[in-house]
Amino acid sequence: MVENQLMLRDINNAEVLNALLKVPRHLFVTPEYQHLAYSDSALPITHNQTISQPYIVALMTQSAELEKNHRVLEIGTGSGYQAAVLAEIVDEVYTIEIIEPLSKKATHLLKKLGYKNISAKSGDGYQGWKEHAPFDAILITAATPEIPAPLIEQLKVGGKMVLPFAESSFSQNLIVLTKKKNGKMDKKFITGVRFVPMTGEVRK
Ligand code: SAH
């Protein structure tokens, strides 16, 4: 997976490659998809959600330009896979999932795997996690038509936000936003993607 799907594309950050080598992806998929755990695709988990394609997990992680001492917020825990990848690289990971049973399942697995630097909770990620802000980076792993204002507030100046921006119901672009000193966000396009929608407040 790491050689063929990541290194042969444009994943060249050693910490990111190492993290994807270490995290046992087969434990994050449901039993019927275990034989496909290291394939080049997103896979269904429960509650109509998906675990993202390994390449996209790596690309989002690499685009966040992480350092060991960083504190990172993820919106959309899903299976917990992306959170585990982040936790291999940075000191502190916070992750929020709107579907409670998914949050519980991921929390249980991450604990079982010994990740002590991940804090997970169930709720709408729209509001972020104020108690632990500011964050060095924020990853949203569900497609949103809007950047939630509380997330911009909770990002450090110079910090990156990586997310699939829903341009329309057909097209989503993976983008990286960098928070500037004046509070404005610099935007960089990475690639076209397909994610499940972000739900909750962002759709109201
Ligand atoms: N990062 C996950 C995959 C994410 S799939 C992994 O590594 O497996 C997107 C997830 O975002 C879904 O589980 C969905 O329930 C969740 N989600 C959607 N809207 C959300 C919101 N407003 N707040 C938090 N989680 C949300």
What distinguishing features does this structure have?
alpha/beta, 204 residues, Rossmann fold
Explain this structure.
The chain has helices spanning 2-7, 14-22, 54-63, 81-89, 100-112, 149-153; strands spanning 43-44, 50-51, 71-75, 92-97, 118-122, 135-140, 155-166, 172-179, 185-193. The chain has a single domain (2-203), classed as Rossmann fold, CATH 3.40.50. Helix 4 (81-89) links the parallel strand 3 (71-75) and strand 4 (92-97). A 7-stranded mixed sheet has the order 5-4-3-6-7-8-9. A two-stranded antiparallel sheet has the order 1-2. The longest helix is centred in the middle third of the chain and has 13 residues, at 100-112. The protein is of the alpha/beta class. The chain has 6 helices and 9 strands. Helices cover 25% and strands 27% of the residues. The structure holds S-adenosyl-L-homocysteine.
Provide a quick synopsis of the model.
The chain is α/β, with parallel strands linked by helices and 204 residues long.
Which cofactors or ions or other ligands sit in this model?
A: S-adenosyl-L-homocysteine
Q: What structural class is derived from the secondary structure elements?
A: alpha/beta
As for the CATH topology, it is: Rossmann fold
Query: What oligomeric assembly is this protein in?
Result: single chain
* Poorly predicted runs: none
Total strands = 9
SSE string, helix = H, strand = E?
Answer: HHEEHEHEHEEHEEE
Largest sheet: 7 strands, mixed
The helix tally amounts to: 6
Cross-sheet strand order for the largest sheet? 5-4-3-6-7-8-9
Average pLDDT over all residues: 97
CATH homologous superfamily identity: Vaccinia Virus protein VP39
What CATH architecture do you see? 3-Layer(aba) Sandwich
Termini separation: 39 Å
Q: Give the class-level CATH name.
A: Alpha Beta
Shape assignment: globular
Indicate the radius of gyration in whole angstroms: 15 Å
Beta-strand proportion: 25-35%
